[in-house]
Write a sequence for this structure.
């Protein structure tokens, strides 16, 4: 039989449980949105031109030729390891999202997700910052990992996917 923890640890655990039980929150830990509205963001890539969605094989091949292999953080290093993440990326200074309807769609999405996370009283507290465009080949997703964001006060990492 294992010995009992010292009473100071037991007291600390009880105090922590008591404090956590008093926390009041308005939102959930996660939020998601599935939309029946398909808004093409109006992707325009420098040196390629306009790319419409759904993505055609020919357009994906053109993007791959102008993109670089996406690195990832491993500890304090940034590395490329195709066995872990076989993904291409474009930096945000090499493409634009030009469809004005995308801005409204994104704003509605942020508002809905923010409300789900408990930010309905301060919607200005959430904003979307374009970090990069990632192109995953079929079956080339990340292996299980923890996401770290190199931005001041990040709330979350979000991704937008297209229907198959």
């Amino acid at each position: 039989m294992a010995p009992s923890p010292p009473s100071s640890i037991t007291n600390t655990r009880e105090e922590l449980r008591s404090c956590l039980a008093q926390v009041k929150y308005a939102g959930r830990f996660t939020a998601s949105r599935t939309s029946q509205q398909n808004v093409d963001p109006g992707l325009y890539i420098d040196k390629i031109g306009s790319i419409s969605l759904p993505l055609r094989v020919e357009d994906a091949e053109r993007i791959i030729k102008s993109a670089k292999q996406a690195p990832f953080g491993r500890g304090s290093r940034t590395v490329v390891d195709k066995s872990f993440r076989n993904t291409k990326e474009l930096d945000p200074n090499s493409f634009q999202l030009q469809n004005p309807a995308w801005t409204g769609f994104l704003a509605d999405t942020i508002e809905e997700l923010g409300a789900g996370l408990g930010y309905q009283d301060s919607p200005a507290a959430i904003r979307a910052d374009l970090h990069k465009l990632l192109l995953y080949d079929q079956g080339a997703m990340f292996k299980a990992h923890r996401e770290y964001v190199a931005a001041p006060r990040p709330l979350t990492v979000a991704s937008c996917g297209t229907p198959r």
The helical segments are 7-21, 57-66, 100-116. The beta strands are 43-45, 49-51, 68-69, 72-74, 77-79, 87-90, 95-97, 133-136. The first helix runs from residue 7 to 21. The mean pLDDT is 79.
